[in-house]
Amino acid sequence: MDGLILQILNGLDKGSAYALIALGLTLIFGTLGVVNFAHGALFMIGAFCAVTISKILNISYEVVDPNQTDFLGNPLKVKTPYVESWFGPEMGTSIIDWSVPLAILLTIPVMMLIGLIMERGLIKHFYSREHADQILVTFGLAIVLQEIIKYYFGANPIQTPPPEALQGVANVGAAFGMDLPYPIWRIVYFCFSLGIIGAVFAFLQFTTFGMVVRAGMADRETVGLLGINIDRRFTIMFAIAAAVAGLAGVMYAPINPPNYHMGMDFLVLSFVVVVVGGMGSLPGAVLAGFMLGILESFASTTWATTTLPGINQIIIYLVAIIVLLTRPRGLMGRKGVMEE
C-alpha cells in the first residue's frame, strides 16, 4: 500500500507539470485556434527566470576579511553578495535562499510580455493559415529560443535548489499511521499547480472578462458583432497562457535542473496530453495531465520495466492510441474542434 501511494504521488507530481503546460496550450488553441509548438519553450524560459534571479541575487564583491588568513598569514579576500550588504547578513541570506519563489515576481510580467510579443509580432499573421503552417513556424520559433538560452546559459543543467526550509522530506502518511517519506518541494509544486489551475478556471468562470472569453471561444463572430473587441481579449489570454507555462517552469526548476532542451522534452508529451484530454477542452487537459502522469509513474516501476522493457517510454503514446481509437475527440473534446 505504501508503494502504491508513493507511485500515485510521483504521478501527481509529474502530472502537475503536464497539466499546467497542457492548460496553457489549450487556452491558446481554444481562443486563437493556433497550434503553438513554441509553448514548451515558454516553460523552459520560466525555469531560466529562476536561474536568472538566483544569479542576480548572488552577484558579489570582494572584501578583505582580517579574521581569515592564508598559510602565509595574509588576510583573505572573501566574496560578499550585494544583497547581504544592502539588507544585512541575515536578511540577505534569506532572500538568496528563497530566490526560486521570489522569481515568480519576475516571471509573471516577463512571460506575459514575451507572450504579447509572440502573439502580436508573429502568430497573429498565421491565424488564417493551415495548422501545418502554424506548427512549422512555432516549432522554428521554439528552436530559436532554445538556441538563445543555450548561448547565454550553456548546454549543461544548472542546479537551482529550493529554499532550505523546503528541502528534505516529509512523512505524508503520518496522519494515517503509515511511513511515507516524500520530498517537500514536490508537495509544494503539486499544491502550487492546483492553485494556478484553480485560479485560471475561477478567472474564466467568475469574471466578466472570462465569461466574454468563453463566449468568444464558443462563437467568436457573434461576440464580435456585439461590439466587443474579442481579438484584444484573446491576445491577453495568450499572455496569460504564457505566464502559466512560465510559472510551471520556474517552480519546476528545483525538481529538474534547467537545461536548454527541457522545453522540447515536455512539449511533445504535453501535446499528447491535450489530444487525449480533447482539443479545446480545459478540464480535459487537466484531467489527462494528471491521469497520464500517474500511468507513467506506475509504468516506471521496477516490476513494469522488468515485465515489459521500455513500457515507461511508450505508455503515454499507447494510452493516446487507445483513447483516440475509442473516442476520436479525446476524453472531453468538443464537437467541431479541428474537424472539417
From TrEMBL:
InterPro entries associated with the record: ABC_transp_permease, BCAA_transport_permease
Top-rank taxon: Bacteria
Membrane topology, record value: Multi-pass membrane protein
UniProt key word Transport: yes
Compartmental location: Cell membrane
UniProt keyword annotation of Cell membrane present: yes
Ranges that cross the membrane: 16-35, 42-61, 95-114, 187-213, 234-255, 267-295, 307-325
Cross-referenced CDD domains: TM_PBP1_LivH_like
Keywords: Amino-acid transport, Cell membrane, Membrane, Transmembrane, Transmembrane helix, Transport
Entry similarity comment: Belongs to the binding-protein-dependent transport system permease family. LivHM subfamily.
Protein's UniProt name: Amino acid/amide ABC transporter membrane protein 1, HAAT family
The species this protein was found in: Shimia sagamensis
